Amino acid sequence: MVGEYSYCPVETKQHLKNKVALCSWSPKTDLIALGLCNGVISVHRYKMVCIWESPATSDPDDITQLVWRPDGKSLACAYRSGRVCLFLANDGFVYQELHFADAVTHLSWTTIDCIPEQTRNDGTNAATFFPDLNCLNTVESDSSLNSGSDMSKFSQLLSNLDGSLTILTIYSCNTLHFYGCDSFELARWHVKPSLFTEQDSKLELLGCRFSACQRYLLILYRWLNMNGETCLELQRIPCDGLVKLGAQVREISLLHSSIRICKELLDKSFGQICTSWEDTILEMDVKFTKYARERLSRNKNWSLCVELLEFILFGNCPASLRKFLVEDWTASSLKRTGTATLKAYESIKTICFQQLQLTLQRLLFHSSILLGKLRDTQRYEPFGISADSAVRLCSTVGSVLQKTQELHLVIEKSVTHLRGFFKWIYVAILKLSGRVLPDDFPQYIRPGEVRKPLELVVANSLKDNADRAKLRNLVNLSEEKLRTTAFPVGLFPYCSRATLADLIQKSLQNDIDSLFGPPTAGDFSRSCFAFEDTVSQLLYCGSTTQFDPTWAFYPLFPVSTTVDTKFRTSVSDTARRSTLFAWSPPRAVDGSADALVLMEFETGSLNLEISLKRTAAVRLDAFPNTLSSKDGSYRLQDFEFFTSELLILLLCRSTNERETVSDSYLPAGDVNTTSWIIMLPIQNILVSSEAIDLANSSTPLWTSAGTSPSLLSCHNLSELITPANMESLPWEAVKLATNGDRSIVFVLFKGRCLCRVYLLERPEPDDAGIVQDNLEEQRMETEAVETTA
Fold it and tell me: Does 674 fall in a domain?
């Protein structure tokens, strides 16, 4: 029978220090993510071996949401403070952070796979033109440039863009935000209840999912009406534009992700330059601060630069400087200073020549591709991205590239002069101190005094600067002309007053924000969502105090002729997909058994009302061969879709008899409560159910009295399952998480410090194929009857 499994507990683990707040299985691997109550995220294998754990902070932030990306490569975590962190699944590296004004109460990740085959590609071809950043030579002495650094992680992200389109949905401050490929803000909508828009009540969004056909968005709300009754409302928002413009959305999102990662690499590289420069300044500052403070106290017009130049160029060495060089800055100390300074300069030169220039060239590559696409107004005009902003970004990237090359030339020149300076001052200190001079001393310092103006000494350098200035005058283009779209190819605006820090941290960031920023201040959809065509249906309305319903969505794919579920996700079967939705109404006022409502939505139907293909209700009355009146009522604690055919339920029941349990993990107050895992065959229920007419959207499907005004097809749990569908748990359970593809169930028990992982094995009877064929025939017959009707 469907849902018959044997349960093998593979691991029981007790978290002694922190309680588990949230848990979620990876959709592609056997990894489970646990969100602890102290704000720490930990990822474990199915035997609860910890792979990585996020560092704990001094100010713990409560975790509100935890969700995996559909490909299992990333993990998103939302916090009470409004922060959203995106982790790499293999090592926990935070590659992006999003910040919102209030707590994030909903996260979901969806892969948009309904893109025509002829428009699909494998992503960018940048790897053809640019080497991997990890293949470049790095400075071995700098620990920030090793293989495990942030630079390496971001370069891996840049090379691992697979070309798929994922939509990250975030809800905060009564606003839904949609991000393509984790970073490009595709749409934003301030949510509104559609049934009673005139009321001013607190609205709470419980869930948001794309349908299986990905033509509309389903949103579940909870709110209080004007009579103080708690209501559940289901909204449907058409998003046909997301499917029609899927190829363009994917290309824009991937380019935005590539540009964002390049900007992160530039920030990291510039941070390394700043660190190297600070090391140089710190080394020199330690030597000269005390000496300079004493000289300034005697003469406010004194300059260290002038005094050193007079000593180097003309041989003038005041008594105070002579004393400083002989007593404070000894030859051995100077050698350490010179080594540290030259090493820092070599690091800056390496970063400029390899990391900065290569990243800027790749950033210019992606920006140019984006500019070419935006000029195809017929395909990309709906996104509201200006081609002029892309031109400005390309121009700024060119300016940064020019400034980087200038810095590289300056550093290269400085290294040559610094090496000679430190050699010269080394032998000068030896001479001033009366020590033995090296044999090659004359090649570093000439005896006698030099009496020449400073302009004549540096005449060659000044002449070179004047010649370079004349070259720019020959171009005869002002900065305003260079900022226009008519400037010659290859010329970028140049501002001698702009620093590399201003260009990278301000100009580039401003241009990227201006290019990909929201087109309007309020709601926007970029032609992907039709928020104005929202349709609603009232699911529940009653006098019950505010309750927390359990709910779950699941995409239902057409059954393939093969048993392998891999072939159920083909794009060609998109039109036959449907969406399953399960939710639990509150317990009736008369204390009757809990209930569970199953709904299957019409595939691709965008009528004026929400169309239901099949709907049924299941009363959790009793187990087979068990009297519910004797053993007490069952409470639905949690549930999840295990597969498209099975819904796994977590049921609890309080009894009057105390059970004898010897396990030391069991809390003393839990001996009166028993929990079970139930496999509910939902397809058997839906096949025997019929569609209902939702002519009046304000008529609820369920009321607080436990009745169904819409005449739902009701079933009793005792008639749907057998003892083989049940598994008794040793303690009272409060939450579960499932991975149907790998047949794993995670159960969290009361107290949230104890968990157990079950590995499920399904027996394979000889007539398994016959049962599958009979189920398929029943579905085909039901669909044929509905079509003729």
Answer: yes
Domain boundary (462, 496, 516) is at 516
Q: Within this chain, do residues 506 and 581 fall inside the same structural domain, yes or no?
A: no
> In three state form, how does the secondary structure of 566-587 look?
HHHHCHHHHHHCEEEEEECCCC
- Statement to judge: residues 560 and 509 lie in one domain: no
344 and 437 in a single domain? The answer is: yes
**Does residue 345 fall inside a structural domain?**
yes
Q: Which residue has the tokens 């209080």?
A: 224
Residue labelled with tokens 């050699």: 423
Residue appearing with tokens 């400005």? 392
* pTM of this structure: 0.82
Both tokens assigned to 107: 């996260």
Query: pLDDT category, 111, cuts 50, 70, 90?
Result: very high
Number of independent structural domains in the chain:
2
How would residue 653 be classed by pLDDT, with cut points 50, 70 and 90?
Answer: confident
Looking at the fold, whether 353 and 437 belong to one and the same domain comes out as yes
Nearest to 249 by CA among 157, 187, 191: 187
What pLDDT does 438 receive? 54
In a domain, 344, yes or no: yes
Average confidence (pLDDT) over 39-63: 90
In a domain, 324, yes or no: yes
Of 738 and 569, the one with more pLDDT: 738
Domain-ending residue, one of 493, 516, 539: 516
DSSP conformation class of 559: P
Parallel, antiparallel or unpaired: strands 203-210 and 733-739: unpaired
Provide the sign of the torsion angle of the four alpha carbons 79, 83, 89, 92, taken in this order: negative
Q: Which residues pair with 218 in a beta bridge?
A: 209, 236
Q: Tens of pLDDT along 322-370?
A: 888 777 777 677 777 788 888 888 888 888 888 899 899 999 999 999 9
| Mean pLDDT taken over the chain | 78
Instruction: Say what the pLDDT of residue 570 is.
Output: 41
Count of CB atoms situated within 10 Å of the CB of 301? 6
Same domain, 452 and 567: no
Indicate the DSSP class of residue 659. P
Tokens of 682: 């939902």
Residues shown for the chain: 789
**Does residue 424 sit in the same domain as residue 471?**
yes
Residues 422 and 560 in one domain: no
Residues 6+ apart with CB under 8 A from 375: 387
The range of the structural domain enclosing residue 322 comes to 270-516
Residue of 638, 711, 732 lying closest to 680 (CA atoms): 638
Q: Is the dihedral of CA 498, 503, 507, 511 positive or negative?
A: positive
- Each residue's pLDDT tens digit, 686-743: 887 776 766 677 778 887 766 665 567 888 898 899 888 899 999 999 999 999 888 9
CA-CA distance, 678 to 520, in Å (whole number)? 49
For residue 596, the cross-strand partners are 618
